[in-house]
Amino acid sequence: MTPVQHRSHVDDLLSFIRASPSPYHAVASAAQRLEKAGFRELRGTDDWTGTTGGSFVVRGGALIAWYAPEGTPAHTPFRIIGTHTDSPNLRIKPTPDTGSAGWRQIAVEIYGGVPLNTWLDRDLGISGRLALRGPGGTTDSRLVQIDEPLLRVPQLAIHLDRSVNDGLALDPQRHIAPVWSLGAAQEGALLRRVAAAAEAEPDEVLGWDLMLHDIQPPGYLGAEREFVVSSRLDNLISVHAGVTALAAAATAAGEPAYIPVLAAFDHEEVGSGSDTGAQSPLLERVLSRSVTARGGSAEDWSRALAGAFCLSADMAHAVHPNYAERHDPDHHPLPNSGPTVKVNVNQRYATDSTGIAVFAAACERAGAPWQPFVSNNAMPCGTSIGPLTAARLGVPTVDVGVPGLSMHSARELCGAQDPGHLAAILGAFVTSG
């Protein structure tokens, strides 16, 4: 990719992130882009018989999309891009109204591995979805996004805690209730504000999945704007790259060697154990049904799966200049040097030599660099959806990701060239070789 192409890709990525403060918004943004590329949504209750072309299924914060042009043999193997839509954050409890010492506050719960100090003293908005009462006993789901500085988790002044910098340890019970007004806590105040933002009445709201997000927009950093800084780079970089690759695959000419698939799961940050997570049968059922819809048999399904391969794309750790000793001494990934292939022999990542070869071949076709990543033996290794997908489907899998700093922070960093490299590699992965 040229510098202009890299910049264009990142500009589009930043727009995608701004529109995606929650997993539900990320799915809506991805679906909108796929529809513009000619894909259509299929619902579980629809009849899929004869369905070809670009299709996608939405379930909550998860999306499964694939492209099978008319005439594609039912046994054509899948090339699966695995990603996730969720990020660690603060989520609003079912009974949110609280307060202390004359301040109005809201009650939140910690979601995933949150570095709590990164959420202090930030202007926070609210996003997510509301479950609304519909006519005749039905229910409806509606997205809500308030990009206003409504809340803040205030830092305790250093004058009142001289040990605040000793280990940066925080007590969640004391530090994580955001303030949003003065005065006695008023029951229902938050509900009224959120319902109004969704153009609904408070008594229509039956439940919610709401979370806080930093309203500071994503952008560039550095003397030459060589870095990207944003919330939710983990893992919206990969979701955006997967959508880009899938849309591009839909324009490729000729009979495809593979059926490209994007699997964007939810709840990866808390173990993927939900109906929208990588441990669920969601991907397996959707892909199996897509084979049947094109007239395939059980044998066709088995053949399609036997020839399948999955590339799990999630963020990786760049070497930290202030803590290089925390990294493997011989593996120091750097921003703008290409995505990493992540290896862990204890299967925290699913990569093996075959996966490395498939990934390296895709990098060569895309003209993109890549780097190896291995965790320090003395440090616990993170994981991703790769091993879960491999175990669930019995499909060989390679774990890769853009290297960055401040993973899980409210403000993460990566190189400005690597998102474009990843998209190009994913495009090469799903279309050939």
Total strands: the figure is 20
- Our count of domains comes out at 2
Task: Name the structural class.
Answer: alpha/beta
Question: Termini distance?
Answer: 20 Å
Largest sheet: 9 strands, mixed
Strand content: 25-35%
Q: Regarding CATH, which class of the largest domain?
A: Alpha Beta
Poorly predicted regions:
none
Helix percentage:
25-40%
The name of the CATH topology of the largest domain is Aminopeptidase
Looking at CATH, the homologous superfamily of the largest domain is: Zn peptidases
Topology order in helix (H) and strand (E) letters: HHEEEEEEEEHEHEEEHEHHEEEHEHEEEH
Radius of gyration using CA atoms only: 22 Å
Q: Any idea what the CATH architecture of the largest domain is?
A: 3-Layer(aba) Sandwich
Mean pLDDT: 93
Describe the protein's architecture and organization:
The chain has a nine-stranded mixed sheet, with helices on both faces. Strands 11-12-20-19-15 form a five-stranded mixed sheet. It has a three-stranded antiparallel sheet with strand order 5-6-9, with no helix packed on it. Helix 2 packs parallel to helix 5 (233-249), helix 6 (282-293) crosses helix 7 and helix 8 packs across helix 10 (418-431). A hairpin with a 6-residue loop joins strand 19 and strand 20. It is 27% helix and 28% strand. The chain contains ten helices and 20 strands. With 433 residues, the chain is an alpha/beta fold. The chain folds into two domains: 3-87 and 231-431, Zn peptidases (Aminopeptidase, 3-Layer(aba) Sandwich); 89-214, Aminopeptidase i, Domain 2, CATH 2.30.250.10.
